[in-house]
Design brief:
Largest sheet: 6 strands, mixed
CATH architecture of the domain at 127-282: 3-Layer(bba) Sandwich
CATH topology of the domain at 127-282: FAD/NAD(P)-binding domain
Structural class: alpha/beta
Radius of gyration: 24 Å
Number of helices: 11
Number of strands: 27
Strand order of the largest sheet: 5-2-1-9-21-20
CATH class of the domain at 127-282: Alpha Beta
Length: 454
């Protein structure tokens, strides 16, 4: 639709209206791309902040305070008069009327829409596990997990029954992707270093940290050599790695695991782990907004609920709507190569956000859009103190290394990509203090309600 088609003669054409749903990596990059152009941008976010999710586990494990990895959404655009930030939850999209509907009844008209609502947890059809094994996607999740971890030690200090105390001091992380590996390694460090000497009736180092993975190795997206190195570093920290272990049941006092001894399940055995602190890092699903977009536009979704998009990230039959980030089932289109799926990582979301915005500007200018091309900057994962793995593509072949050097590389990369100088400085200072003292300073729990519960 041409925004100027109904403009009376002699009057200036109205500026194109762009609505961006979500202020994560994809939405933020898209909004930044429009700055300086003759476009009115509205960013809708259901929280009031942009969150640097790769360091969210640091908040969950008391290593960093929440403001260190988050920035108020309004602050990010306070100097850009063309960008309006709204706090609201999208409940519907009218693709015919070109309106976005919010929970409070507000209807936002748009000429172009970019949906970057991100992802949520997937329990593979067992949503009843969610209250018992929280995932880690939001600050609220991080606060909940931090409370559970710290209060488990507090309740163990009060517990006289040895079996009950053992369950309180058994921590289980389900899923050995980057989040699971980072969580498990940090939990082991908390038990062995951070809490050392602080209790009188328990020895925190006696805590057991288990990393349960249904596949044959940790960090399966990485080369097998780095995967093996990551496992060795985890075990050196004291983490018990359980591979080929499928979780079949979770309740208030623990979980049940089925261990397959053969590829066909022959000889499979089951066992139980008593634990009062379980963290879910095993599955990711697209935001429920993906289904709303699909219903409104006739677009298809894949099994995790991601919306299938065209090469330029728009929707079939609706070029005015683009979907980016974890919500998009997107392909990378490199000349001379077959299309390849885009991994669900923050660089992919950022690149999609910029490409979608660039294509909106090209449409406004009457130019053809460009297919999305993902540039792989490598994979990083930290395991713990002086332990990490790095896989970087180079023109001369992959560069892979682990250990102390990889950990320093991981640290400075994450500081560099944080939002704002203040956050970079605070995180650097907090990490330097923690490195020298083995202490984690963000251990205040404001709400101890439900202490000891799962």
């Amino acid at each position: 639709m041409n925004a100027s088609s109904s403009t009376p003669p002699g009057e200036p054409a109205p500026r194109p209206r762009v609505v961006i749903v979500g202020c994560g990596f994809g939405g933020l990059e898209a909004a930044r791309k429009f700055v300086g152009h003759e476009v009115d941008v509205t960013v809708v976010e259901k929280t009031n902040h942009h969150l640097f999710q790769p360091l969210l586990y640091q908040v969950a494990t008391a290593g960093l305070a929440a403001p260190s990895i988050a920035a108020p959404a309004r602050l990010l655009f306070h100097g850009d008069e063309d960008v309006t930030t709204l706090l609201g939850e999208v409940t519907g999209i009218d693709a015919t009327a070109r309106q976005v509907h919010l929970a409070d009844g507000t209807a936002l008209p748009y000429d172009h829409l970019i949906v970057a609502a991100g992802a949520t947890h997937s329990y593979f059809g067992n949503d009843q596990w969610a209250p018992l094994a929280p995932g880690l996607k939001t600050l609220a999740d991080a606060f909940d997990i931090r409370r559970r971890v710290l209060m488990a030690f507090e309740m163990a200090e009060l517990e006289a029954d040895p079996l009950r105390r053992k369950a309180l001091m058994t921590f289980v992380v389900i899923g050995a992707g980057p989040t699971g590996v980072e969580m498990a390694g940090t939990l082991a460090e908390i038990a062995r270093h951070t809490l050392s000497g602080e209790f009188r009736h328990i020895v925190p180092a006696d805590a057991e940290v288990l990393l349960v993975e249904g596949g044959p190795r940790v960090l399966q997206a990485m080369p097998e050599s780095l995967s093996q190195r990551a496992r060795e570093q985890l075990e050196k920290l004291g983490v018990q790695v359980r591979l080929n272990a499928m979780v079949t049941h979770i309740d208030a006092s623990g979980l049940e695991v089925k261990l397959a001894s053969g590829p066909d399940g022959a000889g499979a055995t089951s066992y139980r782990i008593d634990s009062n602190c379980i963290v879910w890092a095993a599955g990711v699903a697209a935001s429920p907004l993906g289904r709303l977009v699909a219903a409104a536009t006739g677009a298809e979704t894949d099994r995790p609920g991601r919306v299938k998009v065209e090469p330029d990230l728009s929707l079939p039959g609706h070029p005015e709507i683009s979907v980016v980030g974890d919500l998009a089932a997107a392909m990378s289109h490199v000349p001379g190569q077959p299309p390849r799926p885009v991994p669900g990582v923050s660089p992919g979301a950022k690149q999609m956000g910029r490409t979608a915005a660039e294509n909106v500007l090209r449409r406004i200018a009457g130019q053809p859009t460009l297919p999305f091309r993902y540039r792989d900057y490598g994979n990083l994962a930290t395991i713990g103190r002086n332990a990490a793995v790095v896989d970087l593509p180079t023109p001369f072949g992959p560069l892979r290394f682990s250990g102390r050097l990889a950990w320093w590389f991981w640290l400075f990369v994450h500081i560099y990509f944080l939002i704002g100088f203040r956050n970079r400085l605070i995180v650097l200072m907090d990490w330097a203090s923690a490195y020298l003292s083995f202490r984690r300073n963000a251990r205040v729990v404001a709400d101890v309600k439900g202490a000891g519960e799962s």
